[in-house]
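User: I've been trying to design a sequence by hand for this structure and keep getting stuck. Would you show me what you'd pick, starting by listing the structure so we're on the same page?

Assistant: Good idea, let's start from the same input. This is the structure you sent:
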């Protein structure tokens, strides 16, 4: 077998992987990127819920008490996310959680991260939207908030709104290249500087390298493009620096599988997992009430019936992000859209809530729903269990896997959800406008597209796996830069924060790479500049 070497090996091509891959490649390092999913471009994205389309690039990973929706393709979550791009509030960085002490590194505050937020917003770029950009669903939330005495705002998005067709198929990738995924900025810029991106390459282990001048050896398997559960071949790449960005579900599993060979890993790896405090609810809007109470109507004469029209996320209320309020009482309420395939998760009022005539009637009214996402402060109570033989989870079917995560929400987390539920009802059930029904934990448990914290940064070695420079404790030159590194839930969509943290981590990664003897250019500009 030919010996494969590279200067910097990046595992994963989402926000945490694409950003360091670009800067190291542009600086002159040999960079290799392993991505477990396939490569797809705009013409390959099919706006369909047929099996064999979206489930090639999206995985639903079911754990014990939690289900995670994750991207599985070159570009990672940026290809299938809804592009809401928000900075975390200042109070998030001061959170103590149930540990009773500051969880974020002392060096990291909102002010300290703002320059890195600036860079990401310019590189993607992020669009500041206005009311003409808000969907019918976002307009219903805004009108209901106003009537209940709350504010509501358009949400900034990484979307070219002039090119967006409002087709609402963002989960399946953007056929129009309007969504500013990493396929349009950091990744092509990295390839222009020689980065080698390898799709369908799933990293399995990270071990010490026996080769002189190389620190780590990464074992991988190449997946069959038609059946990801089948392995076509295997290989090893030796690297001077490794950047793990396989996602908050993938990264801890790779490290756990590698623990003995690495001589041990921090105890915090695979602990403190968070779903970003996500809580999804459905408000079943009464059409006549939308007309009489909110004064709404569409050009076709209906009052609403517009859930599937527009982009998935367009409006949110931030009225419950008071920095002086107690922890676990702060949250964002955001209008969001999920494809009809997920309608089975919405709960009817009868028993059982997930089945029967009442559920069928409720699903028949799905165009009059207003789906809402509360992002709250949770307790980082998730853990990872026995490592699967290969991969990050056991693949059950295309797009479906069984993970090793266990999530048992504490009273603090449940209290945060209850407060968000109460706030939603106060806004959307006022005078009978709708009936709000949270997705029940009885069917799919806690559902999140925002997994965080399973190998987090921090100052305390007992409760954090990484230094504030994102380096794995005790393992020089091994970094984690994806959502696993984020110490707490954020009360907003996390993509922009993950990207800003990755931008910030580049300086330390560059230093370690230079220490390994790689000559690097400094002062690399933003991609495309």
């Amino acid at each position: 077998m030919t010996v494969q070497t590279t200067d910097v090996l990046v595992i994963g091509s989402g926000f945490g992987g694409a950003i360091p891959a670009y800067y190291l490649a542009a600086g002159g390092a040999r960079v290799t990127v392993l991505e477990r999913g396939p490569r797809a471009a705009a013409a390959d994205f099919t706006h369909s819920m047929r099996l064999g389309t979206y489930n090639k690039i999206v995985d639903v990973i079911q754990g014990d008490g939690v289900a995670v929706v994750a991207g599985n393709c070159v570009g990672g979550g940026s290809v299938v996310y809804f592009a809401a791009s928000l900075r975390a509030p200042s109070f998030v960085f001061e959170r103590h959680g149930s540990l009773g002490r500051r969880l974020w590194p002392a060096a990291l505050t909102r002010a300290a991260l703002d320059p890195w937020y600036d860079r990401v917003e310019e590189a993607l770029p992020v669009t500041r939207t206005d009311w003409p950009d808000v969907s019918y669903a976002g307009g219903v939330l805004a009108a209901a908030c106003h009537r209940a005495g709350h504010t509501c705002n358009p949400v900034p998005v990484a979307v070219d709104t002039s090119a967006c067709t409002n087709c609402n198929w963002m989960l399946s990738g953007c056929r129009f290249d309007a969504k500013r995924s990493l396929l349009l900025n950091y990744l092509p810029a990295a390839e222009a500087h020689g980065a080698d991106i390898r799709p369908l390459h799933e990293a399995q282990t990270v071990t010490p390298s026996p080769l002189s001048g190389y620190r780590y050896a990464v074992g991988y398997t190449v997946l069959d493009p038609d059946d990801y559960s089948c392995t076509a071949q295997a290989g090893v790449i030796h690297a001077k620096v490794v950047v793990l960005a396989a996602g908050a579900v993938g990264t801890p599993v790779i490290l756990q599988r590698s623990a003995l060979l690495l001589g041990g890993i921090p105890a915090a790896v695979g602990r403190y997992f968070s779903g970003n405090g996500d809580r999804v609810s459905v408000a079943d809007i009464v059409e006549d009430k939308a007309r009489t109470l909110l004064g709404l109507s569409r050009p076709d004469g209906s009052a609403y019936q517009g859930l599937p029209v527009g982009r998935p996320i367009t409006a949110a209320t931030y009225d419950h992000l008071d920095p002086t309020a107690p922890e676990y009482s702060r949250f964002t309420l955001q209008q969001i859209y999920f494809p009809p395939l997920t309608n089975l998760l919405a709960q009817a009022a009868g028993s059982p809530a997930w089945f029967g005539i009442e559920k069928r009637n409720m699903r028949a009214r799905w165009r009059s729903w207003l789906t809402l996402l509360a992002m709250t402060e949770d307790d980082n109570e998730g853990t990872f269990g026995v490592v699967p033989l290969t991969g990050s989870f056991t693949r059950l079917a295309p797009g479906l896997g069984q993970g090793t995560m266990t999530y048992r929400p504490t009273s603090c987390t449940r209290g945060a959800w209850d407060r968000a539920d109460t706030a939603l009802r106060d806004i959307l059930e006022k005078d009978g406008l709708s009936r709000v029904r949270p997705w029940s934990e009885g069917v799919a448990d806690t559902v999140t597209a925002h997994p965080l914290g399973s190998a987090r940064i921090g100052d305390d070695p007992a409760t954090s796996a990484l230094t504030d420079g994102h380096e794995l404790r005790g393992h020089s030159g091994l970094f984690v830069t994806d959502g696993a590194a984020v110490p707490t839930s954020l009360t907003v969509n996390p993509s922009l924060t993950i990207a800003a943290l990755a931008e910030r981590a580049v300086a330390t990664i560059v230093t370690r790479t230079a220490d390994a003897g790689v000559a690097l250019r400094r002062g690399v500009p933003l991609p495309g500049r």
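That's my pick for every position. To get oriented when you compare it with your attempt: The longest strand covers residues 227-244. The longest helix spans residues 495-515.
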